[in-house]
From TrEMBL:
The keyword Iron belongs to this UniProt entry's keyword annotation: no
Coiled-coil region: none
NCBIfam families for this protein: PRK10754.1
GO CC annotations, alphabetized: cytosol
GO MF, any single term: quinone reductase (NADPH) activity
Keyword Acyltransferase: no
InterPro entries assigned to the protein according to its UniProt record, in alphabetical order: ADH-like_C, ADH-like_N, ER, QOR-like, Quin_OxRdtase/zeta-crystal_CS
Name this polypeptide is given: Quinone oxidoreductase
One Pfam family from the record: ADH_zinc_N
Species assigned in the record: Elioraea tepida
Occurrences of domain Enoyl reductase (ER) (ranges): 11-323
The entry's keywords: NADP, Oxidoreductase
Length: 325
């Protein structure tokens, strides 16, 4: 028997339905995975609301999970039943007890990393990896800004950036989240609900401003984030938690100092098998050496995914959240 959370229409958390679905079987090049834990990410909300469109409805959402290989299809030689694996990849479908995926999208888990930790860190951790090491290669001595610093990606990025030798400025919504971010490597937490983050960045940097801003918030922070950049700085817009960034005149980038702008995705940075494997290996390395600690601060039964979505959208979560099938 297999159950999944599916959506039959787009909307609020109430459209998430716990339903019995057919048990899948792996085709050529695929593996069947029994989930032990599923990751909760903001991209799940985008698919639920229709900001991102699933291939068809009804649809099972979710991008990230960890569990055990139950069976493999024809031609799969790198995996076998019983292997512990994790993934963070398209297509959607993680909110299920069992699912099939292409075997080359799965990575084997080191013994020291449990299923909940894996489900909590694959998407967020590999996102942090490509942002800090490839989209903009953070160097020792640089000062950077990370929005939503107490969130799942934010806490990982703060720790990893500190490990790379950067000074980290981070925005958060409360004093509690400021304390959490500071405990995870954020040198200068800014409570944006009462502080002007642009003014604080100018103060912290002595007017020099920043080489890079990492912005997963979107509409609310985008324009002021541009004003935090030094000439030739890079704006990395990698999420839309407050809504999509509206169209703007690209001449603004020239007027504000010949700025660069990118809208990267994990899918692009891990499209090649070798890049996926390298990203996961880099993540496993910093976690196992203790440079990055994964905080699983919320757990929900998978069937209660609607409540998990309400908590995430209500900014009532910190660190990572997992759903347990």
């Amino acid at each position: 028997m297999n159950h999944a959370i599916r959506i039959h229409e787009h909307g609020g958390p109430e459209v998430l339905r716990w339903e019995e679905v057919p048990m899948p079987s792996p085709g050529p090049g695929e593996a069947l995975v029994k989930h032990a834990a599923v990751g909760l990410n903001y991209i799940d909300i985008y698919f639920r609301t229709g900001l991102y469109k699933p291939p068809a409805l009804p649809a099972t959402i979710g991008m990230e999970g960890a569990g055990t290989v139950e069976a493999v299809g024809e031609g799969v030689t790198d995996l076998k039943p019983g292997d512990r694996v994790a993934y963070a990849t398209a297509p959607i479908g993680a909110y299920a007890q069992y699912r099939t995926l292409k075997a080359d999208r799965l990575v084997k888990l080191p013994d020291a990393i449990g299923f909940e930790m894996a489900a909590a860190m694959m998407l967020q951790g590999m996102t942090a990896e490509y942002l800090l090491r490839r989209t903009f290669k953070v160097q020792p001595g640089q000062t950077i800004l990370i929005h939503a610093a107490a969130g799942g990606v934010g806490l990982i990025m703060c720790q990893w950036a500190k490990h790379l030798g950067a000074t980290v400025i981070g925005t958060v919504s409360s004093d509690e989240k400021a304390a959490l971010a500071k405990a995870h490597g954020c040198d200068h937490p800014i409570v944006y609900t009462r502080e002007d983050f642009q003014a604080r960045v100018k103060e912290i940097t002595g007017g020099k401003m920043l080489p890079v801003v990492y912005d997963s918030v979107g509409r609310e922070t985008f324009m002021k984030s541009l004003d935090c950049l030094a000439p030739l700085g890079l704006m990395v817009s990698f999420g839309n938690a407050s809504g999509a960034v509206p169209p703007f005149e690209i001449g603004l980038l020239a007027a504000k100092g010949s700025l660069f702008l990118t809208r990267p995705t994990l899918a692009s940075y891990t499209a090649k098998r070798e890049d996926l494997a390298a990203s996961a290996a880099a993540l496993f390395e910093v976690v196992q050496k203790g440079a990055v600690k994964i905080e699983v601060n919320q757990r929900f039964p998978l069937k209660d995914a609607a409540e998990a979505h309400r908590a995430l959208e209500g900014r009532r979560t910190t660190g990572s959240t997992v759903l347990i099938p």
